Amino acid sequence: GIPTLVANYIPKGIDVEFQSENGVLGMGPFPFEGEEDPDMINAGKQTITTLPGAALFDSAISFAMIRGKHVQLTVLGAMEVAENGDIANWKIPGKMVKGMGGAMDLVASADNIIVAMMHTNRIGESKLLKKCTLPITGVNCVKKIVTNLAVLDITEKGFKLLERAPDVSVEEIQNATDGNLIIEGEIPEMRFRSYLSQSGEL
């Protein structure tokens, strides 16, 4: 999903220790074509690289680290986010469930939770709601949301609009948001920069 792309876009000069819940600390960006190691994967079964000093361990140790609150920030995908910070991302009733995954441990343990997702679902329905309709993963835990349309903070009054995507109007974001959207002053466009990845490539 979208959150797995984060490791590819770390600004040069900033050191971040990425943990993959299947047992990797020091995860790097995706490998280039022809450099893949099929034994080196993330929790989503995508091939990855590791940075100097990386450590590999089993998932029991990985989740002990997560539950022990050693993770400062997590980026998750979601099916729904409520205006109070509730998140639903593990189950759609009536559909096959492979398992809960590690999201429940992460939302209960990480200090800062950011959701990276599309603003609407495949049929155009908003994923930013007054209340989640799907089974809840975590309650009142999401701090920030980044979508293809906007960047928003979770506040006591609802979704506060911080930035909008290029060529996307505030009205479009408002129409795509079912929860309470707080708009204060002029909303700037997102600014995109070309960062070097941790591999040193653009």
From TrEMBL:
Keyword annotations from UniProtKB, A to Z: Transferase
One Pfam family this sequence matches: CoA_trans
GO molecular function: CoA-transferase activity
NCBIfam families reported in the protein's UniProt record: pcaJ_scoB_fam
Entry-linked PANTHER family: KETOACID-COENZYME A TRANSFERASE, SUCCINYL-COA:3-KETOACID COENZYME A TRANSFERASE SUBUNIT B-RELATED
Protein name: Succinyl-CoA--3-ketoacid-CoA transferase
Species: marine metagenome
